[in-house]
Design brief:
The chain has 173 residues and is an alpha+beta fold. It has four helices and eight strands, in the order H-E-E-E-E-E-E-E-E-H-H-H. The protein is globular and about 50 Å long.
């Protein structure tokens, strides 16, 4: 076992998705300048502290959150990644994702610090318009994923787009 796996076995429970539990659980780890997993945005409904370096945040089905993972070793960065995920209900299909139980609908998935940093800047721009990134249209996160993957600049998310999305969502059954 690696050091991380061994510490998880000794440290106690890891997040689980019980049949009676309809939440999506995200395990966060923070070991300064080594492993830094954090949530950039999202409205968690429960927090469980596992130890001083690890905690689990839980999300209701349908909620959207950004999960950032960064890790390094003695030679530099080994992973830099951002995933924007929509939590799913127990009956919906989902993608598996490390440290997310059971998984979720992945709206955006990018690797490499330049792309991750660009997404973080786009999130800042959305917040500067007084829009909660967790309330942004899932289609916009897919748009950002597709444009950045293709090496193009994504379009800005406007307040008019957001208002139209909210009206469309309120009209759905």
């Amino acid at each position: 076992m690696t050091g991380t796996a061994a510490s998880r076995v000794r440290s106690g429970p890891s997040p689980s998705a019980l049949a009676s539990d309809h939440l999506t659980h995200v395990e966060l780890t923070w070991i300064e300048k080594r492993i830094e997993y954090w949530i950039r945005f999202g409205d968690d409904v429960h927090e469980q502290i596992l130890d001083r370096r690890r905690r689990v945040l839980s999300y209701q089905p349908g909620s959207i959150f950004a999960f950032v993972r960064w890790a390094s070793n003695d030679f530099g960065t080994i992973i830099s990644r951002i995933d924007i995920v929509r939590a799913v209900s127990s009956r919906q299909p989902y993608h598996t994702l490390p440290f997310v139980r059971p998984g979720g609908d992945i709206l955006l998935k990018l690797e490499g610090w330049p792309k991750v940093e660009h997404v973080l800047q786009l999130i800042d721009a959305i917040e500067a318009r007084n829009i909660d990134p967790a309330a942004v249209s899932p289609d916009h996160w897919r748009h950002i994923h597709n444009r950045l993957t293709a090496g193009h600049e994504p379009r800005a998310y406007t307040f008019e787009q957001h208002r139209a999305f909210l009206k469309r969502r309120s009209a759905e059954p």
